[in-house]
Amino acid sequence: MAEPTIQLGGGNWAGKSDNLLGYYKEGERFYKQDFTFSRSTTGTYTDSEGYIQEMPYNLASYSEDYTNSLQGASTTFGTITSPTSKLNASTITTTANGDYKGWFKSYTLIGSTDYTFSFYVKYNNKQWLSFYHIGSNITKFDVQNGVFGSNSIGMTKEDVGDGWYRLSGTITASSGTNYFYVYNSGQNDQDSSIGDAFYLFGIQLVKGTSAKTYFPTTTRLNMPRVDYLNNSNGSLILEPQRSNLVTYSSDFTEWDISTESTSTMTVTPNYTTAQNGLSASRLVATRPSTDFRSIISNYVTNTNTATKSVYIKNNNAGNVDINISDQAITVTDTWQRYELTNNYPHATIGLRYTGAALSCDISIAGYQFELGSYATSYIPTSGSSVTRNADVCSITNASDRIGQTQGTLYSEFDLTEDNNFTIVEINLSNSTSNRILAYRNASYIQFIVQVGGYIEINNSTLVTFLDTNKIAITYQANNFKIYLNGSLVKTYTSGSIPSSLDTVALQDPNLQGRKQGIKSLAIFKEILTSTELETLTTL
Prior knowledge:
mainly beta; 53% strand
């Protein structure tokens, strides 16, 4: 079989700011082929351990650029080799006498939630430095000898070699703004003098009680998301723009409670942790008879089709019946994400206990209310609605990698978490009027060939999709074929080929559809044989 000229995924995922790494192979050598990526906001994904994380999970932006994160100090980048063996560590030098002179930054965090802060340091000319988080004791560290001073907030050290130490400590955040300092100091005070210096690298702030592998960041915004939910090899998430209109997605103490007669509802924040790592609240509702009820609600403005999604479990054995904005669900004693779509002309969303018993006890996390006919990945909020922009991923100026008169397009995609929603699979083009496009729409494969604005082919083929699918499409003038999961499902014997194809896009912005679960993608400049296509697409 011929080698693909462009490959992506297949368990080999590498992303950085503004890029997703693809590759191609010539002989025994591999060469990178970067896809450009943008979203201009953060987004969430499920990691290999099943936890929902932000992408990137390092909440500290500019983890190696400290230009705008200094107080009474200066920074010089690239003065020394970091623990990554690259010349990307910085010198932090005090420029004014006094307290708290060094690296300083504030972060808006969720109150009463555990976060772990970590950084790498190395001795320059000042023996002692300090770490301080507002609300915690100051930790002193002897950089020259690698030992802690008398005060500590439970920080740990890791000797990573060549004089570098990684210091990390878990803090419980205050609600709102939290301040962090790493600065030159004395053994018994916070003062430093002009010229005092230490080496710094790899600032990281993550949710949870472990430091995690260091993840370098710049703006944190344009990072591709590879999701591992039900998929050990990972799949790329590409989604349209969505907003979570709920202002407090997990802090239900901020929701309104209304009860009738002697009904009650109590909320216990941070009661437990959901199976996906989200902090969950406990809701306990009681009532004297089935005529009365308890409601917890939030408010949104909406007159369109919208989807609610929320993670809930019954804290007792068995099931319990509740309503979510007048839609009945049965909550089991295992964590599930419940997704409900309807037209909501009112402005109140909430939970109401409706079961036959006179009490219920549930845990709840991650409430999302978004305009659209399906639920997308979780968007956390804390005090206001939050918008996640659309994912945009493509590779341009790739005409030498795309067959101009014939070729084969291949993709493996995952529909485990999907329903009947549009998913674009492959889009070769040089403009919106010259393209070869295939996408899934419900139970159909829609195939479009457009040349100079003229529609050569626009046809739907009814197929049977599985949780995991493999599709291959061959193209040549008057000779187009579609293979799905080992079988030929469609042949077209009429149609021209667009000229000067130079772009591979992983979604068509005109469709505004959801694409989740690209497990791999490959482009061949040749038409593969029938046997090769059957083998390539067989699950």
